């Protein structure tokens, strides 16, 4: 009671003094914040470098390891084995190796830094429109919990179910899947590859395929050359041990290549099968279109029923553009849109609201902002792509740091269903999954790599494509 | 046409509602929009005109995604250059998207804005929907 009186006494004065200031303060801030690029307000868990030109998954995770292994092995090859082989055999060897190496690195970087085909989330009006369409046929639904929403359509005389994505608030197009790691819907979702630190989807599948094919050729090539090198050295009558002593780097290369060539070759073969059948890893694992017992009507409605046409359409088809328009500017006029506090891309007025919108995003921002400001200079592909001024917007507006740009919880490492390339049946089983054991032993890259490969060796070896 | 809206006028007009033309997936994953005439537009625009616009858009998207000699050549060339060619060259798809943007702007200026409607380029909505904004019709007999 007494408190109430005091409050009433203070109130009118406080009102008078504070009134003039609030209106003037937000305006200049708003004007300064108007010019923002869309990647800064992106709602998925991707990270962006070089002012939106480069996009990676939430955790680049094992990508440095992949790059490191390739660079170290190839480097050792060129430094220690090539001189001997050039002298004794031919100068073509480093040339071929060089070409393969360049292909591997460029396609790896392309795979990692390209938008895999992310679908932008629905605007509030779209989401409301879809909700209206769903609720209408249902009539009266007393339960609060909405039933799983699916829509059935017919593609090529086959019924396909489209699922509703609660995160992105859209009905997913066919072959689209939501990646829980990146928190995006990705078109023609294949899998999330930890080795490249990104999803593999419609737009970067051809890069991924080029990467694994050229990498399998490179590892096979290095393996062959190193074997030849050691064989030639030991032919001098001194024996293999002496040859290994003279060139210890070759031993390391042999080990790495021996364990990787099986898995990478197998993976290439598996993906060649998928391309020929116009399937994605996701569909293959789920068995969406495989003929189950008693269900002969199920076939792949997307296949052209011709291996050549399937291959051409996947690998040489037109390159669709990125739908998320990372470097576009967030439109500042929101008079047309009447968006709620839970904002979507076009509502720039709610910049300030966005800070308070997602607590998850805000916490992520707070924990990751020092990391992000320092990560652009570290980004390797600056050598490959042109570099812009690194993220001036970040340093100037820490308070309004876009919540969704940064990565997620660093400690989480769950096995995701999209993660696993692993199959337990008689088919080729490559464990593409990110084993927690490997992650914990990452300071010893070679060991973790070997451990990873050992698990693959236990799996059934690749059988011929069926 | 006592008073026709121009695109400029529309910016100040109030939005009455938005209609979303969804994608048509019956032919697979290629980009096609449903040609069904939305009920909200019945009072505003001729059904034939609308369907013609949608059909032209569908044809343009089909052209962008067509699997033919040109796209194969582009794909093979890109593969041979380790995809570095994408950094310097504009793809066929992007060229067609520019054509589509121009077409939509043209349609807006000539046909839709005078009727108090505005088409939003589907690429701005991630090729999910074709958004048609219906503005409050303050004029008398705008047709």
Automatic annotation (TrEMBL), chain B:
Residues 19-131 form the Golgin subfamily A member 7/ERF4 domain. It comes from the Eukaryota. Keywords: Golgi apparatus, Lipoprotein, Membrane, Palmitate. Pfam families: Erf4. Its main location: Golgi. GO terms for biological process: Golgi to plasma membrane protein transport; protein targeting to membrane. It is a lipid-anchor. GO terms for cellular component: Golgi membrane; Golgi stack; palmitoyltransferase complex. It is found in: Golgi apparatus membrane. May be involved in protein transport from Golgi to cell surface. The ZDHHC9-GOLGA7 complex is a palmitoyltransferase specific for HRAS and NRAS. PANTHER family: GOLGI AUTOANTIGEN, GOLGIN SUBFAMILY A, 7 (PTHR13254), GOLGIN SUBFAMILY A MEMBER 7 (PTHR13254:SF1). Belongs to the ERF4 family. This is Golgin subfamily A member 7.
């Amino acid at each position: 009671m007494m408190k109430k009186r005091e409050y009433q006494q203070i109130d009118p004065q406080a009102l008078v003094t504070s009134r003039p200031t609030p209106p003037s303060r937000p305006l200049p801030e708003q004007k300064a914040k108007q010019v923002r690029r869309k990647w800064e307000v992106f709602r998925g868990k991707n990270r962006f470098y070089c002012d939106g030109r480069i996009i990676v998954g939430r955790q680049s995770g094992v990508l440095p390891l992949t790059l490191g292994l390739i660079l170290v092995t190839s480097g050792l090859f060129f430094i220690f084995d090539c001189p001997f082989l050039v002298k004794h055999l031919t100068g073509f060897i480093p040339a071929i190796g060089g070409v393969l190496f360049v292909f591997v690195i460029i396609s790896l970087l392309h795979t990692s830094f390209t938008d895999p085909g992310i679908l932008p989330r629905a605007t509030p009006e779209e989401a409301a429109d879809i909700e209206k369409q769903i609720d209408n046929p249902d009539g009266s639904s007393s339960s609060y919990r909405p039933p799983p929403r699916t829509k059935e359509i017919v593609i090529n005389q086959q019924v396909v179910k489209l699922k509703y994505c609660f995160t992105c608030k859209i009905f997913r197009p066919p072959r689209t899947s939501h990646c829980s790691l990146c928190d995006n819907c990705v078109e023609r979702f294949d899998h999330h590859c930890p080795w490249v630190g990104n999803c593999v989807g419609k737009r970067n599948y051809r890069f991924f395929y080029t990467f694994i094919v050229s990498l399998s050729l490179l590892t096979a090539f290095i393996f062959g050359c190193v074997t030849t090198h050691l064989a030639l050295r030991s032919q001098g009558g001194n024996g293999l041990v002496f040859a290994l002593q003279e060139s210890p780097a070759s031993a390391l290369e042999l080990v790495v290549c021996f364990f990787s060539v099986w898995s990478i070759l197998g993976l290439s073969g598996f993906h060649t099968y998928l391309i020929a059948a116009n399937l994605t890893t996701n569909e293959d694992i789920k068995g969406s279109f495989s003929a189950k017992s008693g269900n002969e009507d199920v076939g792949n409605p997307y296949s052209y029923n011709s291996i050549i046409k399937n291959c051409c359409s996947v690998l040489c088809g037109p390159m669709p553009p990125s739908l998320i328009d990372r470097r576009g500017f967030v439109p500042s006029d929101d008079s047309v849109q009447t968006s709620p506090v839970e904002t979507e891309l076009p509502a720039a007025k709610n910049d300030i609201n966005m800070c308070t919108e997602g607590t998850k995003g805000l916490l992520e921002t707070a924990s990751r902002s020092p990391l992000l400001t320092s990560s652009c200079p570290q980004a390797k592909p600056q050598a490959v792509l042109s570099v812009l001024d690194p993220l001036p917007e970040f340093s100037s507006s820490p308070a309004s740091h876009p919540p969704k740009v940064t990565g997620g919880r660093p400690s989480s490492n769950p096995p995701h269903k999209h993660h696993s390339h692993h199959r337990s049946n008689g088919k080729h089983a490559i464990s593409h999954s990110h084993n927690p054991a490997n992650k914990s032993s990452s300071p010893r890259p070679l060991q973790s790599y070997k451990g990873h490969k050992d698990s693959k060796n236990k799996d059934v070896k690749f059988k011929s494509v069926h | 046409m006592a008073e026709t809206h121009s695109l400029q006028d529309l910016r100040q007009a109030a939005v009455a509602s938005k209609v979303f033309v969804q994608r048509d997936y019956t032919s697979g994953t290629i980009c096609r929009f449903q040609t069904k005439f939305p009920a909200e537009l019945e009072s505003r625009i001729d059904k034939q005109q609308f369907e013609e616009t949608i059909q032209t858009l569908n044809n343009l998207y089909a052209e962008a995604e067509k699997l033919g000699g040109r796209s194969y050549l582009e794909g093979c060339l890109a593969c041979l250059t380790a995809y570095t060619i994408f950094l310097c060259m504009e793809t066929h798809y992007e060229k067609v998207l520019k054509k589509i943007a121009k077409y939509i702007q043209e349609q807006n200026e000539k046909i839709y804005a005078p009727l108090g409607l505005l088409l939003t380029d589907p690429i701005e909505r991630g090729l999910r929907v074709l958004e048609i904004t219906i503005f409050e019709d303050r004029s008398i007999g705008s047709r």
